Amino acid sequence: RLESYQALHHIQGEGYVRAVGVSNFALRHLHELEVAGFDPPAVHQTEVHPRYHDDAVVEHARQHGTQIQGYGCLGGRHTGAR
User: Fold this and answer.
1) Is 80 exceeded by the pLDDT of residue 80?
2) In what order do the strands lie in the sheet with 43-47?
């Protein structure tokens, strides 16, 4: 994870990408980035919908200026779909 994030920051510094984001990181993964001295991700794509959300991850994003891009499954037991 850290090597990949470092590589993304490297290509950002070279101007190939404007922003670096993550997908499906748990709070412990975000803390790993902090401990390693990285800036917080610009965007975090994670599962967020009325039947499931990780409030700690969403709050962490709010506190660090990270945009949440939520997604939700269209089916499955946890969605209430039949």
Assistant:
1) no
2) 21-23, 43-47, 67-71
